[in-house]
Structures are given as structure tokens and as C-alpha cells.
Amino acid sequence: MAKQVVPESARRRRRPTQQGTVLSERLIVHTALRVLREHGSTGLTARRLGTALGADPSTLYRYFAGMDDLTRAIGEELMGQALDSWSATGEWRADLRALGLAIHSSYLAHPQAAALTASRVTGRPREIAVDETILGILRTAGFPDAAAVRLYHAFIDLSLAFAALDAGALALTEEARATDEEMWTSTYARLPAESYPHIAATARLLAARMPHSAYPVVLDTLLDDAAARLASARRG
Amino acid sequence: MAKQVVPESARRRRRPTQQGTVLSERLIVHTALRVLREHGSTGLTARRLGTALGADPSTLYRYFAGMDDLTRAIGEELMGQALDSWSATGEWRADLRALGLAIHSSYLAHPQAAALTASRVTGRPREIAVDETILGILRTAGFPDAAAVRLYHAFIDLSLAFAALDAGALALTEEARATDEEMWTSTYARLPAESYPHIAATARLLAARMPHSAYPVVLDTLLDDAAARLASARRG
DNA sequence: CGGTAGAGTCAACGGCGTTGGCATAAGAGT
DNA sequence: ACTCTTATGCCAACGCCGTTGACTCTACCG
């Protein structure tokens, strides 16, 4: 078997598999995304991916060091899609907000994949590009370096943490997800008011709000705070 | 085998295993936490847990419907420990802050377990108790129901999302974690200033800040915002 | 138009969650 | 104190899983 994985750029011969497909990192990652969507976040297995590709499972080890390596490549793909779907306007607050939402929705577009990768930090190219972009927006907007780094840290971790949390909820099977959402109208809405007065009093509001993500609310709070600090620093 | 799991309260006979241990849900959950700590977040297996308990793996199915059910019980235990370590003072902002930090640090105290459970919502008793507590603090502080629910939602999801994110980082093996932290002094600090001017300019600040959690900063931002809204509503 | 080594295949290993059938001893009822 | 019932733990087995080493074949280099 492969002593070490051949980097994609150095790959020369493209021998088709028995079933005729010609493999590539790109094809494998995209097929993995499809398998994840169809079989859930725990449904990506070497055998299944091999079958989906029309190749022997062990062939994957010619392209990735193991399933863990493949997982990181999937995460990098999600981050890349977020960056591609975003464009700068020059208005720092709007740009940051849009970038955060782009990252969030890129992950939510592949919830099963996101649940697998969102808490991994890889240091791969597209991830670094996102970091450079965020820091650039903040420093160009006039934040001093210390404030920019502090805000960058809060921004990126907040976005990734919510991407993981919300993706985890979406990645459940359809029935499990429905059960979870209904929990606010079934379990929580029926708790006795004597023991749980506050939940009982707000049950209707909870059922309306909890199925949505809190990310936009928290993100806006963070950006409002940053804008206020920037304005007051300019005045003072 | 067990058609269905016998609830812990209805359990009568406590027959010791061949190796002499007397099982219980509590013992199993606590042993599972130990196994997770020793073998990592993917190291909890039915066979290993059975060995650690001195019991056959299949015996676990007398207590839990499957490994997934056990996982939820572990999450419930973490939430319970958070609630136990917290006490109210009556000052809403301080109480909320302390509760958030209690949840966060309860999860981080068992990072391998947290990585497994933080994004699950179970609707079990201790979890409901936490929800009731938070809503109680907010409504007693004078927030109208709509604002209380909005803030509750942001608060709990923020806390769980960061618990999961930060636990994920801590749950890596010691060497992998060290490698990740050093990435800010190795990879990021050495990126060429021509291609990555903003990262290069702030490399030292990044290396100092990134290994810590952004949770307290974001939590305080959220609570500051809430306090300001409450004060202005009182004035208006 | 060979020779070579890289890409795909095959078979196997040990470990996983889970199940059905079975032995046995704890506790209820007398 | 004795029996009876059945909850509880054990065993063996099933079909998955990731991964590996030895292999075959074929695309490309010269």
C-alpha cells in the first residue's frame, strides 16, 4: 500500500477504476459530501465512499492518510465555499456580518459534514485566507491591533461554535430533528406551572424562538459593541 | 436480552458481576467519564467500558438502550454538575455570568465527554432545571417575557456552543493539542508579510490570545448589552 | 516500444455495537 | 426456611468498521 500519500499536484497517472471512474481529491471530497448528506454524519465510511466512487475502499489511502485526513479536507472545502460566496464592499460592519453569515450558512448547507468538521482547526490555505480577511477588515476599519485581535478571536470562534451547534441540530435524521423541535411544544409546553413557573409562562415564546439559530442575534450584539467602541475611541 | 431497559428506580435485584462489582446507572456513567478521560473522546466503547466495570459489554444494555442513550446520560451528568456547583446571589447579572461559566467549566472539566455530548439536547430533568433557572433569573430581574426568551436563547446556545468548541480543542491528545497551540507561533507567525500582511502584523498578539477561550469576552458583551437595554427600558 | 513505478484491487486483521439464548442467584411469598 | 420467578449478567455470534501488505495491471517516460 501507499507508504505516503502523493500530493495532488504531483499526481501524474490517472488510471480509471474497474468501474471506469477517474479519481481525484476533488471528486472524492465532493462524493464524500454527497454520501454524508445521504447517510448522515456517522454514515461516511471508507467502504461506502468506495462504493459510491466505484472504487475499492483501500484506494482512498492513495489520496488521504486516513479518514481523519479526509475529514479535514472536507472542512477546508466548506471554508472555501464560504469565502467564494462572499465579497467585500468596504463597509467593515456589513462585510464582517456578511462573512460571518456566509461561514455559518456554508456549514449549514452541509450539516452532516459540518457536524464532523466544525470544531477542527487545520491551518490549511483557505482557512488562513479567511483569517487574513477578517483581520484585514478590522485593521482597515481603524481598530488598533489589540482590539482587532480581540474582536477577531471572538468573531471567528463565535461563528465556528454556532456553525457546529446549529449543524449538529440539522444533521439529525428528519424524524429525530422533528422530535427535537416538537420538544418545545410537547415536553416543555406541558411542564407543570407549579414546578416550572417560568418555562410555563413563556412556553409559547420558547416554541416560536428555539427552533431558530441564536447566531444572528449574538453576532449583531458583538458587532454593535465593536462599533460603539470604535466610535467612542474616535471621539475621545 | 432486555426487551426494554428497566428504569433505575424500579431496579430491585442487584446481582454482582463475576468480578464482584454491583452495577448502577450512576456507577456506569462515572466509569464512562473515567474511560473517556483515559482513552479520549472516541475511546469509549462498550467492550472497554465493560472491562473497566468488570462486566460483560452486553450487560450495559440492561441499563441503557444503546451507546447513544449512555451518551445522553453523560451529558445530563455534566449539566447536573454545573448546576450543583452554582448558587444564586440575587444579582441577576452576576448570577447569569456565574451560571454560564459554571456550565462552560463543567464541560471543560470532562473535555472528552463534552466533545461527545455538548451539541445534544436531551430534555432530561437537570437540563430542564437549568432552563427554568435561567428564565427565572431574567424574568425576576424585570425583563419582559419576549426579551427574557430572546436573551435566554442567546445565553444557553452561546454557552453550549463554546463549551463544545473549547472542549473539542482540549479533548485532543496532549501532543495534538500542543501542536495546535503552537500553530500560532509556528505556521501563522511565519507567514510571509507580503501575502498575509495583517496576520504578520498581529502574529504576536494572536499567539498570546488564541490559546484562550473567547467565551468570557462574548458572554460579557451579551450581558452588557442586556443590562443597557434593561436600564434604558426603566428610564424610558 | 520496453521498463518502471504508481494506481487500483484483494484478502485479511482486529475491533466495534448489538443481539438472542441461556444460566443463575436475589428477593418475594409463604 | 423453602420454593419460585424473573431480573440480571454472561456467552457466542453477526455484520459492520478502518486499516494494512502483497498483488496486479497499465499509463507514461525515455
Number of extended strands of chain A? 0
Question: Distance between the terminal alpha carbons of chain A, to the nearest Å?
Answer: 66 Å
Biggest interface, chains and residues, is: A-B, 52 and 52 residues
Dominant shape of chain A: flat
According to CATH, what is the class of the largest domain in chain A?
A: Mainly Alpha
Q: Name the CATH superfamily classification of the largest domain in chain A.
A: Tetracycline Repressor, domain 2
Structure description:
2 copies of one chain form a homodimer. Chain A folds into 2 domains: about 1-65, Arc Repressor Mutant, subunit A, CATH 1.10.10.60; about 90-235, Tetracycline Repressor, domain 2 (Orthogonal Bundle). By secondary structure, chain A is mainly α. The first copy, chain A, has helices spanning about 25-40, 45-55, 65-85, 90-110, 110-115, 125-140, 145-170, 175-180, 195-200, 205-210, 215-235. The first copy, chain A, is about 65% helix and about 0% strand. In chain A, α1 (about 25-40) packs across α2, α3 (about 65-85) packs across α4 and α3 packs across α5 (about 110-115). In chain A, about 35% of the residues are buried. The interface between A and B is large, with 52 and 52 residues. The structure holds a DNA duplex (30 and 30 nucleotides). Chains A, B: It comes from Streptomyces actinomycinicus. Chains A, B: GO terms for molecular function: DNA binding. Chains A, B: It holds the Pfam family TetR_N. Chains A, B: This is TetR/AcrR family transcriptional regulator C-terminal domain-containing protein.
